[in-house]
Amino acid sequence: MQMSIIEFSVENFKIFRKKVTFSMWARKSDHTFKNNGENLLKTSLIYGPNASGKSSLFEAIGALKMGITNSAKNPEGSSSFLYRPFVLSDNNNQPVFYETVFSLENKIFRYNFSIFKNEIVTENLFEVVSDDEEKKYLIRDKQKIDLFNDFKKSEDIKAKTRKEVLFLSAAAQWNDELAMKIEEGFKRMNIITGPIGGYESYTIGFIKDNLEKRKKILNLLQKADFSIDDMESKKIPFPQDFPESIKQMMSTNAKSGITNLIDTVFFSHKKFDSKNNQIGVERFNLGEESNGTQKFFAVLGPVIDTLENGKVLFIDEFDNSLHPLLTKFIIDLFERDNPNNAQLIVTTHDTSLLSYKEDFIKEQFWFTEKDKFGAGNLFSLAEFDLRNDTEYSKKYLEGRFGALPFIELL
């Protein structure tokens, strides 16, 4: 089951006081794929200074996902992760609003909800039939819930939906077919925030006991010129000073009480004598490799999984510890070798990517910035009227598009 992102909007969430909308829609080009009549981007890049809203946008997307997939399973009153309003104003006593337009199987849906403290205020689900026609499935005003079309058979779920729970999440938990499909679609949307290193174990698990996937990872590491000749996953003892609680969580067989082993990966590098003749190989644990090698390896598991299964992948701080040619290398995987129409959306400070004019279109570049009142904004490079020979990177660093920090020199 494939889900593609068309648009995402959020209002009154953390730095975003006013409604902002991110879109993967674009004019038809080599950078798009056709999905239910819409031309959608394969990749998109978001720029902006620190503390301008890039990570907050991904946090909002993550909150939307968690609300859909988990709110019905959470204890009563535990919806605070959805209510994180803009607080730098005396008029912040308003609901937080989320909305997404997405393609699922052969239909396009628009879903939104608003929440104030621990109460869902509104919740709506429509099928987008055409530019001026929508088909109703769900209309909610607090605990007044009206159901239409495929949802009509789930009338009994209304009474089971608590005030802090999204009906869509409750319906999925009670096995409504449409709600379960939507929930599964959002489960397939992966969001990587914070240090990428936490995904090393994901990639190790991805290749463990799977020769084909191991070959794919190794092939990409070799193409990226890491001088790695071979690799293998292996169990090794935990370090002696490793916290017991983390050992228990990461144990390869925690259920049986075995907490002394952890999965890792070893890379083989060719070894040469003084005359440059190969005399053997040297094996290094992943932790002994460079930060760049560790990060690139960590991200390859989610990248390959996304490409193989036509998923959506968000990566915050995409360029952290990676050479600019490696970030371009990963983007090119989605742009040039993407038969399942996967999508990659990243935040980055790597302005070199803005220099590849022939490899991108304006709709792929987005910017965040913060005004003097502390409120964030989001806008696209497509909003600017630019000449065909404009050097995007140069103009961005000159401040022509905004979204730059204002630094006072000492």
CATH architecture term of the largest domain: 3-Layer(aba) Sandwich
CATH class of the largest domain, please? Alpha Beta
Tally of DSSP helical segments: 9
CATH topology of the largest domain: Rossmann fold
Helix content range: 10-25%
Q: What value does the average pLDDT take?
A: 90
- Count of discrete structural domains: 2
Work out the radius of gyration.
23 Å
Give the low-confidence spans: 252-256
Beta-strand content bin: 25-35%
Structural key phrases:
410 residues, alpha+beta, 7-stranded antiparallel sheet, 6-stranded mixed sheet, 9 helices
Can you put this structure into words, describing what you see?
Strands 2-1-6-7-8-9-10 form a seven-stranded antiparallel beta sheet. It has a six-stranded mixed beta sheet with strand order 11-15-16-5-17-18, sandwiched between helices. It has a three-stranded antiparallel beta sheet with strand order 12-13-14. A hairpin with a 2-residue loop joins strand 9 and strand 10 (144-147). The protein has 410 residues and is of the alpha+beta class. The chain is built from nine helices and 18 strands. Helix 4 crosses helix 7 and helix 5 crosses helix 7 (291-309).
